[in-house]
């Protein structure tokens, strides 16, 4: 009986040892297919003014806490997007809002109160009225002593249609800011008129409800929401060590916080290769996921990424980050 128990324990140990070896070999990046090329760079809101994140809440007026300006660009404008692409961005993220006359404006905040010279929401105004708004009115870096962009933002709020016409061959990540499914339906209606190849250059993310509404009307669209992330990553965390790829991980977008990424089976190269095969874009954002706007904005930030990382990178300062990877191939943004 003792001999039998020893044999059972020995076989159990051997099975566990073989399982651990399999898990290691199947997930280590040391044995992964080599990845070539530079990281995919996503410029958040184009080239924009940045601000301190200390003590920030959903109600914080970020225009009132910007750093001293180092460039003349305002977020979500055609000039800021042009500057981002010239600097080396592969994709620009932008935010959309509906207007009173059912047009799609490009603007970030829930209300107009913080950045502009008017009050209320975009839905309180027609697009023609919003073109008269000064979107640089509220920016200050010294507690209100000076307002360096006042008077310079009149007419700079674009429509989504204007953005796509201005940059017909560029890639965009379009953010639906609300949780209203009507926003997703309206956006899907607008995007359905685009050629198939143009739609492939776009991705869409936001609240679960508008993303689901858009996906229902445009099943071929690349989308992301908290719900789609969970449908992909929860089963992957459970069984990804086997190489299993959940169907929900195919043809989607994943924004992975840097502190969560090492928990993913095969991170970084094996995981990235698996997602490439599934036609899924992986973007690493800064921090632990408490703020998905946190990015890699300095050379010091980039050092936190794995050596030779070649996936996607979220940045609020494309002008500082792109030269680290693209060198002289990136143009200097016009001033």
From TrEMBL:
The keyword Thylakoid does not apply. GO terms for molecular function: glycerophosphodiester phosphodiesterase activity. The keyword Zinc does not apply. Keywords: Hydrolase. Residues 59-325 form the GP-PDE domain. Its EC number is 3.1.4.46. InterPro entries: GP_PDE_dom, PLC-like_Pdiesterase_TIM-brl. CDD domains: GDPD_GDE4_like_1. PANTHER family: GLYCEROPHOSPHORYL DIESTER PHOSPHODIESTERASE, GP-PDE DOMAIN-CONTAINING PROTEIN. This is Glycerophosphoryl diester phosphodiesterase. It comes from Paenibacillus favisporus.
């Amino acid at each position: 009986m003792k001999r039998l128990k020893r044999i059972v324990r020995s076989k159990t140990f051997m099975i566990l040892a073989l399982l651990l070896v399999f898990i290691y070999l199947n997930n280590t990046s040391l044995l992964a297919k080599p990845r070539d090329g530079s990281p995919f760079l996503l410029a958040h809101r184009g080239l924009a003014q940045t601000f301190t994140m200390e003590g920030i809440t959903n109600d914080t007026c970020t225009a009132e806490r910007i750093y001293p300006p180092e460039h003349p660009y305002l977020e979500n404008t055609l000039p800021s997007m042009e500057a981002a692409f010239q600097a080396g961005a592969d994709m620009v993220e932008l935010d959309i809002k509906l207007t009173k006359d059912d047009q799609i404006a490009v603007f970030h905040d829930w209300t107009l109160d913080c950045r502009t010279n008017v009050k209320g929401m975009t839905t309180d105004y027609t697009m023609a009225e919003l073109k008269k708004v000064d979107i640089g009115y509220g920016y200050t870096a010294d507690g209100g002593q000076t307002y360096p962009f006042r008077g310079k933002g009149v007419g700079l709020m674009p429509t989504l249609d204007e953005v796509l016409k201005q940059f017909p061959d560029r890639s965009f990540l379009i953010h639906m800011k609300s949780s209203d499914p009507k926003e997703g339906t309206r956006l899907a209606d607008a995007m359905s008129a685009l050629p198939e190849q143009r739609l492939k250059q776009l991705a869409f993310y936001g609240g679960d409800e508008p993303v689901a509404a858009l996906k229902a009307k445009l099943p071929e669209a690349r989308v992301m929401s908290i719900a789609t992330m969970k449908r992909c990553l929860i089963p992957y965390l459970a069984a990804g060590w086997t190489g299993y790829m959940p169907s929900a991980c195919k043809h989607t977008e994943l924004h992975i916080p840097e502190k969560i990424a090492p928990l993913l089976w095969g991170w970084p190269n094996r995981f990235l290769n698996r997602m490439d095969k599934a036609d899924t874009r992986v973007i690493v954002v800064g921090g632990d996921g408490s703020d998905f706007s946190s990015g890699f904005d300095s050379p010091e930030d980039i050092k936190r990424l794995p050596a030779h990382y070649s996936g996607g990178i979220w940045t609020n300062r494309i002008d500082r980050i792109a030269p680290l990877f693209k060198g002289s191939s990136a143009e200097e943004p016009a001033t």
